[in-house]
């Protein structure tokens, strides 16, 4: 597992550098907040499987002393840890940007909103990972884009339906 995690770190280090350098810049140009978090999430999930598709990793894994289950578990563990550290960095940069830059229009992240975004990203990853594992990268990527566009609309329609019908006693 340690070797697989190291492999994931090496493959995704370019994405890490992009996030580390571009996140503060996005706050300077007043684009920080939720759009940046969503962009990081979309980029990370697709990037996690992009290199495997390009290098035909599924064929190579058969020759290694790892099972497919261990490779997938390593991806999940890496994604959880990586997103946690990225979200901590987002929280730190957001607090620093709101302290030093007085022209930001969006509200700063609170611990509860930060935790909510982190949990949502974990739910999205848990939903999208099987598509990347089972299907081709391009199909899963297109599905991810449509899910990220239509998911919030469907969720808000469902919540509206729940409140309109007063299901479960919700007013």
Automatic annotation (TrEMBL):
Keywords: Membrane, Transmembrane, Transmembrane helix. The chain crosses the membrane at residues 9-27, 33-51, 72-92, 112-133, 140-162. It comes from the Bacteria. This is ABC-2 transporter permease. It comes from Pallidibacillus pasinlerensis. The lineage of its organism: Bacteria, Bacillati, Bacillota, Bacilli, Bacillales.
């Amino acid at each position: 597992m340690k070797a697989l995690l190291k492999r994931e770190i090496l493959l995704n280090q370019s994405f890490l550098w992009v996030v580390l350098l571009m996140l503060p810049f996005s706050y300077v140009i007043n684009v920080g907040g939720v759009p940046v978090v969503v962009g990081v999430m979309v980029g990370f999930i697709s990037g996690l499987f992009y290199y495997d598709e390009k290098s035909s990793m599924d064929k190579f894994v058969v020759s290694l002393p790892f099972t497919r289950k261990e490779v997938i578990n390593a991806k999940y563990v890496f994604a959880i840890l990586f997103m946690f550290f990225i979200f901590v960095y987002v929280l730190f940069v957001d607090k620093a940007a709101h302290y030093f830059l007085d022209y930001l229009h969006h509200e700063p992240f609170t611990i509860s909103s930060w935790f909510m975004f982190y949990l949502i990203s974990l739910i999205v990853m848990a939903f999208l990972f099987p598509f990347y594992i089972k299907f081709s990268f391009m199909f899963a990527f297109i599905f991810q884009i449509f899910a990220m566009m239509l998911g919030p609309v469907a969720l808000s329609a469902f919540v509206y339906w729940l409140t309109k019908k007063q299901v479960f006693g919700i007013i």
